[in-house]
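Lab notebook, bench 4. Still working through the backlog of constructs that have no structural model yet. Next entry is a single chain of 261 residues. Request: give me the structure tokens for it.
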Amino acid sequence: MSSSREQRAESRELKTKIEDRGARSRRRAFLKLFFFCFLLSAISYQLSAVFAFALDRSVVEARLTRFVKQLYGENDDVRIRFNPVTISQNEKMKIKNISFVEMPDANGAGICLLELEQNGGRTRSVQVPFKVFAKRKIFMMRNPGKQGDIIRKADISVKEIHLTGRNSEYPAAAEDITGRILKRDIAANTVITRQILEDQIALQRGDSVNIVLEGNGLLVRTKGKAVDKGRIGDTVRVKNITSGREVIGKVVSSSAVVVQF
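Model written out:
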């Protein structure tokens, strides 16, 4: 009899333990689900805030781009790159005005002043640095070149890229390259700059030339011979055949030197 009561007591105790274990397991599952939902909600909030901020920033940069592009007319070949615009995620604002702190310089760099109207009518100013990239043609050598080689039209290829500033070191047209010579050896696909080009020798020593004497409204032509060699624009000595005198003038072509007096 006592043995039967003990068995029943043990059975009740085992049942209670099982029920307690099940309750603890359900509580742990509930807590896990609660924390998971909380974490998911927090991440969703952060993502929505970041998305809203990115959207606001894109709107601001679109306005800034239109403002800067006014300097370049209707040229669609101009791109503007801005430094990140610092605007609070929760800040509701309205663009009140855009102006230049610094106009684009020779390298395309400038600064815009963005005036924002905040809640309550307060105004905040933000300086936004930017850089202008304009599409232009650059010329490249199709094949390797040696110092002294004369560049022909077939030697060059053209490519369009966006560059900052005026980039005066790049020839603007193929005509600025063809007929000139290389100052040094270069590899194939080298971008052609003015620094690697020079004019051909237009005048060699002993060449016959026309000496053009200019000054005081007078223009006199006479025959001469080159004492020095030179390129277009160089100053050289030439000898007047008639008088035998040497004079100094500027080479203007392969057959003419201008002397000012």
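Notes after review: The two ends are 145 Å apart (CA to CA). The CA atoms of residues 170 and 193 lie 5 Å apart. Flag for follow-up if needed.
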